[in-house]
Design brief:
- Helices cover 50% and strands 17% of the residues.
- The protein has three domains: 169 residues, Transcription factor LuxR-like, autoinducer-binding domain (Beta-Lactamase), CATH 3.30.450.80; 79 residues, no CATH class; 63 residues, Arc Repressor Mutant, subunit A (Orthogonal Bundle), CATH 1.10.10.10.
- By secondary structure, it is α+β, with helices and mostly antiparallel strands.
- The relative contact order is 0.09.
């Protein structure tokens, strides 16, 4: 039997904080799919003072996946099949009979006492003395998950409060599982692209970005004047303000495409290939130089780009040096020959 830790749960069972549903969604959004269920299960074990547990995902015609913490899941599954656990597992029957309603059984539960000896021996060998679980169906699909949170002999019995707390949290667990699956699909589609791509919400907050987008973000953030991973509204919407923002983006050598992705937006950015001698300038230098040659003052350019006039003059001075010219007209001609 595996070593059993001794948790220190609250005297009256877990107290689900108001922010816990948000924390589960944040975990779902920020954790790659291959690690998510493990981390979700670890969080739930700590929250409910459980010693071990599992998340088994099923489809009516096939077993999908299993994640366990606290015991040898492979050996346990082999033994479960060998003794015919499917016919004796009363907790799973109760869970399936009332989806999203947690059920539990302690060692003194009559169902436990009346279970076949092989089943009681199986649970004892794997350190399960108090067992709680809930069946989580996925809406619009035949797939469902079984969540088990178990305690060993050194831990206190489960209570109705524990079951009520798990029942209350179950819709949020289901939502987290679905959100992580959706994000996994989004990541897969984005990571297959070499160009910078991101999934953003309606306010422009970046929910997921592929590697190319992350590499380009410092430059994009500079263009957007962003201190947080949020794209400006002008990049994502229509209208005069958006047109100005798009022109600024284009002046820096970028084009942007927006497509709907369920309730989110899929953003694809593409850098326009540098041509001629203007490739000698940085994107910021070229942006400042073109605005200056179009007749804007250093103050105007600073207001348009979110820069101080002094910073504009530094970029302009460097552009003059790289172009090897000394006047605005010469710089204008040099840029025209470069395009």
């Amino acid at each position: 039997m595996p070593a059993v830790r001794t948790p220190s749960p609250a005297p009256h069972g877990p107290r689900i904080a108001d922010g816990e549903p948000v924390a589960l969604l944040r975990l779902a959004r920020t954790t790659r799919s291959e690690h998510f269920q493990q981390q979700l299960l670890q969080r739930l074990l700590a929250l409910f003072g459980a010693d071990h547990g599992a998340i088994n995902t099923w489809h009516p015609r096939c077993f999908v996946s299993s994640v366990g913490i606290g015991y040898d899941l492979a050996a346990m599954s082999e033994e479960w099949n060998r003794i015919g656990g499917g016919e004796m597992d009363f907790i799973t029957f109760a869970m399936r009979a009332q989806p999203e309603q947690a059920d539990f059984a302690n060692a003194d539960d009559p169902r436990w006492q009346h279970a076949p000896a092989a089943w009681r021996a199986f649970l004892t060998r794997h350190g399960i003395v108090h067992q709680m679980g809930v069946a989580i169906p996925f809406e619009g699909s035949e797939t469902f998950a079984h969540l088990y949170l178990n305690r060993g002999p050194a831990s206190p019995p489960l209570t109705p409060h524990d079951a009520r707390a798990l029942t209350a949290l179950t819709p949020h667990i289901r939502e987290a599982l679905l959100v992580n699956r959706l994000y996994a699909h989004a990541r897969q589609g984005l990571d297959e692209q070499a160009q910078p791509m991101a999934l953003v919400d309606a306010q422009g907050w970046v929910l997921f970005a592929n590697r190319a987008f992350c590499a380009a973000w410092p430059e994009l953030a500079d263009l957007a004047g962003a201190e947080a991973p949020q794209l400006p509204a002008g990049w994502l919407s229509a209208g005069p303000a958006a047109a100005a923002a798009r022109r600024r983006l284009a002046a820096a050598g970028w084009t942007i495409d927006i497509a709907a992705d369920a309730q989110h937006l899929r953003v694809a950015l593409k850098r326009r290939p540098a041509r001629g001698r203007s490739a000698a300038l940085t994107l910021r230098q070229a942006e400042v130089a073109r605005a200056y040659c179009a007749g804007y003052t250093s103050k105007d350019i600073g207001l348009r780009l979110g820069l101080s006039p002094a910073t504009v003059r530094v970029h302009l001075r460097n552009a003059y040096a790289r172009a090897g010219v000394r006047s605005r007209s010469a710089l204008r001609d040099w840029l025209a020959d470069s395009d």
